[in-house]
Amino acid sequence: MVGGGRDAFIGAVHRMAARLDDRTELVAGALSSDPERARLSAADIGIGADRAYSSFAEMAEREAGRPDGIEAVIIVTPNHLHAPVAKAFLAAGIDVICDKPLSATLAEAEELAALARASGLVFAVTFNNTGYAMVREARAMVAAGQLGTLRVVRVEYIQDWLTQPIDADGQKQAEWRTDPERAGRSACLADIGVHAFNLAQFVTGMAPEAVAADLTTFVPGRRLDDNAHVLLRYADGARGVLIASQVSPGSGNRLALKLYGDKAGLEWLGHEPEIMRFTPFGEPTRILVRGGPGLGPASADVSRMPSEHLEGYIEGFANLYRDAVDAILRRRSGEGASGGHVPSVEDGLLGMRFIEAAVNSSLAGSAWTRL
């Protein structure tokens, strides 16, 4: 792992998800650029002193030269380091599992995607919401035509933790996310909006061809946006709206997807991940429950527990790690890494194109802008 040392939030989440199925072992880390913090962070989680690095470049070089070197790297750094870290490990012949967004700039993302394609290695991007069992079920239902022709796509990701200027006060998780040098051109979209975009694309199988965006910075003095309203236009005539906000009091972490076709509608909420509401036109709403009747193999294949033995955020995240491990094992056995549901470098690149188009649209007065 690169990043994810003491006081980091998402690194610990990745570690929990990665080890849930007992298919991975964390043996090396460059957990901080500060040597002492890197050493202490490694000791905290049982990494030996000889494999605790203060430089990702040193880690890539030394691990590639060890007979028992790492088989994959997990990157959980701030955005601006995703590309340089990933390039170092791709060059060392090591498979990559990288947090979103793919990079801080679209130019870096394009370059990184080209390197990943040429390497033949696995490059997984942790759009973890694709791992929820009922999200997989929704994807299968859409693909099977149960909603008919999709007309309307609504997706939102709403939080409240940046309602006050905690970034200006030096709060660790906030201050880098609102720094254009480390976060990129957008804060809200790069942090959570790209998750919403990917969720809609994963379930529908469609990406919009153009966006019209209104990005706003509500907190005085903040250098990047903290709220985004984005209209989506699809090539086949469907229309959509994406809302991302981190200044909405009362919303701790509200992710929602609502799809409407000419046959039926579907609704899934991230804070109620076990449930999906499916409404054929003119009929009562059906409440579908993970592990319950009326579901297919898409959700059953990634369920660990019987119905009403609740599964949630970590289990969904772990499903993505299960997919990534499968892809890496297929590649190492010569079968090829394609297939499965693991989000790829291409999905990461698409997310970066969305962020770039949305920022450009907002700067142009919300003009329609192609991805």
Essential attributes:
12 helices; 36% helix; four-stranded parallel beta sheet; 2 domains; Dihydrodipicolinate Reductase, domain 2; alpha/beta; nine-stranded mixed beta sheet; 13 strands; 371 residues
Topology:
Blueprint: E1 2-3, H1 10-19, H2 35-44, H3 56-65, E2 72-76, H4 82-91, E3 95-98, H5 106-119, E4 123-125, H6 133-143, E5 150-158, H7 172-175, H8 180-183, H9 188-204, E6 210-216, E7 227-233, E8 239-245, E9 254-261, E10 264-269, E11 275-280, E12 286-289, H10 297-300, H11 313-332, H12 345-363, E13 369-370
Parallel strand pairs: 1-2, 2-3, 3-4, 5-8
Antiparallel strand pairs: 5-9, 6-7, 6-13, 7-8, 9-10, 10-11, 11-12
Helix pairs in contact: 1-11, 4-5, 5-12, 6-9, 9-12
Structural summary, described in words:
The chain has a 9-stranded mixed β-sheet with strand order 12-11-10-9-5-8-7-6-13. It has a 4-stranded parallel β-sheet with strand order 1-2-3-4, sandwiched between helices. The chain folds into 2 domains: 2-129 and 321-344, Rossmann fold (3-Layer(aba) Sandwich), CATH 3.40.50; 131-309 and 350-370, Dihydrodipicolinate Reductase, domain 2 (2-Layer Sandwich), CATH 3.30.360.10. The longest helix has 20 residues, at 313-332. The chain is globular and about 65 Å long. Helix content is 36%, strand content 19%. The protein contains 12 helices and 13 strands.
